[in-house]
Amino acid sequence: MNDQQDIQKAIETLFSGQLLAVLSTSSPDGHPYASLVCVVAEEDLSGIYFATSRATRKFSHLTAEPRAAMLVDNSQNRKSDIYEAMAVTAVGTAQEISGPEAEAARSSYCRRHPQLESFVSAPTTALNAWRSTFTTWSTDFRKSWNTMSPDNY
Q: Where do the DSSP E strands lie in the chain?
């Protein structure tokens, strides 16, 4: 395996082990906002999905400006995290999905978060797909690697 394959595998492992991510959006007038979202990722990271009520600030922000950032990490609030924690920051866009893609994502989402099945199935809930254009993977707070070019952003 080469470094890029090792990084990809580490990112896949990180996403498979985490239920939550931090989604950062901005209001139409540019004010930042961050919120926790429950996520589910396809094994190869070809799809990352989250659900939110259409009445939330994050949905309003994403409707006006779909560009956002998502952070997934495995920190556990321990002193050793400074050496052991990993984080992925992905910059990209989020878009509400429908049709067969939404049905497949909803099924995966409910398997990962069975306690949210009624929420994700409600007509007031938007199921969103994350499309990453730039990703940075960091370990032990000192090392980071770009896995996609920032020119894509």
A: 20-26, 32-41, 48-53, 67-73, 86-96, 125-139, 143-146
